[in-house]
Amino acid sequence: MSDEDDLDDFEPDQDDLEKEDDEKDTEDWEDYRKEGEEYSEEWMPTLLTEDMMKEGLSLLCKTGNGLAHAYVKLEVKERDLTDISLLRSYIHLRYVDVSENHLTDLSPLSHLTHLLWLKADGNRLRSARLNELPYLQIASFAYNQITDTEGISHPRLGSLDLKGNRIHLVTGLDPQKLISLHTLELRGNQLESTLGINLPKLKNLYLEIKDAGSRA
C-alpha cells in the first residue's frame, strides 16, 4: 500500500494527538501578550539537530510500496529552536509538533507533503503561510504574532486554530481551496469584522470582534 493510500484513508484522532487542552481563557492570553511585549531580548540561534530528531521521533510506519519503514511523528517542543531547516529531508513525517519555541519561519515544512497534523503554537510566527500541503487536516498556530490569514490553502484542512494572534482582518481564505475547513478558531485576535469568512463547509466558528466585544 502506498503512502497516498494510507493518507487517503486516515482520519486523525484529535483526542489522542492533542493530549493538552488548547483552550486558554482570555486572562491567560492577556498575560502571554504582556509578557511578549515586555521581553525584547534577542534569542540566540538554535538549530534543530540530528540528536534532537532522534529524541523526538516516534511512530514507525510503512512508506512507499510497503517494503520500507520510517518514523512519521516528531515532537520537539520547548527546545528554544529558531531554525528547523533540517526537516526538509524528513519527507515522511505526518505529525509534527514544534510548539513553544522561537520560530519565525516554517517554510521547511512545505517539503513535508505527507503532513497530516501540525502544531506550531507559542512561537514568533508573523505568518501561517505554507505551500499547499495536500493531506494536511489539522493545523494550529495559536499564540504567535500572526497578522494575517494569507497563504493558507490546504484542500483537506478541516481544523485551523489561529487564536491569540494579531489578526485585524481575515483575507486570503479562498473558499475554492479550503473546501474541507469545518472549524476555525480566531479568538484572542484584534478582529474588526467577519468579512473574509466565506467557507462552504464551516460549522464551528469562534471569534471576538474588537469593537463590539461579541463572540460567535
What does this structure look like?
InterPro entries: Leu-rich_rpt, LRR_dom_sf, SDS22/Internalin_LRR. Residues 1-37 are annotated as: Disordered. Residues 1-30 have a biased composition (Acidic residues). It comes from Prolemur simus (Greater bamboo lemur). This is Leucine rich repeat containing 23. This protein is 14% helix and 15% strand. The model is unreliable at 14-26 (pLDDT under 50). The chain has 216 residues and is of the alpha/beta class. An 8-stranded mixed sheet has the order 1-2-3-4-5-6-7-8. The longest helix has 13 residues, at 26-38. It contains 4 helices and 8 strands. The protein has helices at residues 3-9, 14-17, 26-38, 50-56; strands at residues 57-63, 68-75, 95-97, 117-119, 138-140, 159-161, 183-185, 204-206. A hairpin with a 4-residue loop joins strand 1 (57-63) and strand 2 (68-75).
Features:
single chain; 216 residues; alpha/beta; eight-stranded mixed sheet; 8 strands; globular
> C-alpha Rg, in Å?
17 Å
Largest sheet: 8 strands, mixed
Q: Which class of secondary structure composition applies to the elements?
A: alpha/beta
Give the helix tally: 4
**Mean pLDDT score, rounded?**
86
| Residues in helices, as a percent range | 10-25%
Note the run of SSEs as H and E.
HHHHEEEEEEEE
Q: Which percent range describes the beta-strand content?
A: 15-25%
Q: What's the overall geometry?
A: globular
**Record field, number of beta strands:** 8
Spans where pLDDT lies below 50 across 5 or more residues: 14-26
Q: N- to C-terminal separation?
A: 43 Å
